[in-house]
Structures are given as structure tokens and as C-alpha cells.
Amino acid sequence: MSDTPESPRRGIKSFVVRAGRMGTGQIKALAELGPRYVLPFQAGRTLDPAAVFGRQAPLVFEIGFGMGGATAQIAQTLPDHDFIGCEVHEPGVGALLKLIGEQQIENIRIFQHDAVEVLEQMIAPASLAGVHIFFPDPWHKKRHNKRRLIQPDFVAKLVRHIAPGGYLHCATDWEPYAQQMLEVLAAEPLLQNTAADYAEKPSYRPLTKFENRGLKLGHGVWDLVFRKR
């Protein structure tokens, strides 16, 4: 996606396409494990998680998993949950597939597709136990703030797919975006904050190398955990 202003007619996108090199391990993982763990996007066809995973389990949906390290760790920390991750960045998909193969993780499946379309077209209403959105693009420049993922219209759409009592967990290392997230989520009538404002980092979310380095330099990280009423 370019940095030119978006047309008002264009819908929300959960991603920005970026170039990236593929390592040999990632290429091999895509070829060998992609057919099993990467799900095809099929517009209008509702996903059957029990058929995909071979069991009934709480389903967590992650938007933009990057290189997949945190996703793999969370899936291993919560083996009684199943995880659907959306990421359009092919090196990231390859990296997560490589981890799945190396660590024999069976409770992750991937969509290499825009998460907004996957939600709208393939995820049943009130079917998600949780949604993870970790470190989405903060679009630092003020004129680009409208491109941020966490906006009232998107959150309203997202909440429809979360089951009552399910949660939405967002995290960012950009304080102005954290403030916007808090404002937007608090204004959604179907969501209730689990904290007075920002939440303590839940134990299941691991610290990334980037985050750990930032914390040592005194940079902040803000977690927000809201539950659906």
C-alpha cells in the first residue's frame, strides 16, 4: 500500500504490504507446511473451526502476527485454545510455518489474507473467545492517523464476532496510539475495560526482542484488554 491518501470509498485494511526477503527455511516451510496450515480465503464460506482443528476449543483470532514468534509462544502457553492468525507479509507467514514445524505446534492455522475480509466473510458472529492485535502500524504522522486499524467502525465490526465474555487484547509501544485505542474501545458500548485504563501485560503475551530492547531504553508499552458484555 502506498502512502498516498486513501479514497473515501476504500474500506478498512488491516495491513500495509511491505517487501521482504525470504530465507531458505521460510521458503521450504511455505512449500511443505503451507498446504496444511495455511487456510484458503473463500468469500462467503463460514469457517468451521472444529473441522479445521479436529476438536472443539476456544478460538482466538490474531490480526497481523509479524514474524510469528509471539504467536507460536502464546499457542504453546495456551494449548487448550486454537489460534487463527492473519498476515499478508509472506516472510512472516514462512517464519511462523517454520516455527510450527520445528516446535510441532498443532493449534495454529493461518490466513495469508486481509484480516478484515476474513472476519467479514469467513468468521461466524459471536464465535471468537478472543482477538489479539499486537503492535499494529501506528501511522505516526498526524495526517496518516486515519489509516490506523483501531477506529470506531472497525471495532464495531470486530465486536460482532466476539462471543459474550470474550476479550479484545491490543498492545502498542506508541503512546498517542495507545490513547486513541483507549478512547475508541471505551466508547464501544459492547465492550468493558478490564482495568481502570491500561492493563498489566497478561502473562500469556511474551516480550518480543524489540519490546524488551525498548523497555531497557525506557520506552513504554501499553496493553488494553476489554471484554464483550
TrEMBL record:
Its EC number is 2.1.1.33. The keyword Methyltransferase applies. Pathway: tRNA modification; N(7)-methylguanine-tRNA biosynthesis. Substrate binds at K141, D173, T208, K209, F210, E211. S-adenosyl-L-methionine binds at E62, E87, D114, D137. GO terms for molecular function: tRNA (guanine(46)-N7)-methyltransferase activity. Belongs to the class I-like SAM-binding methyltransferase superfamily. TrmB family. NCBIfam families: tRNA (guanosine(46)-N7)-methyltransferase TrmB. This is tRNA (guanine-N(7)-)-methyltransferase. It comes from Roseateles violae. The gene is trmB.
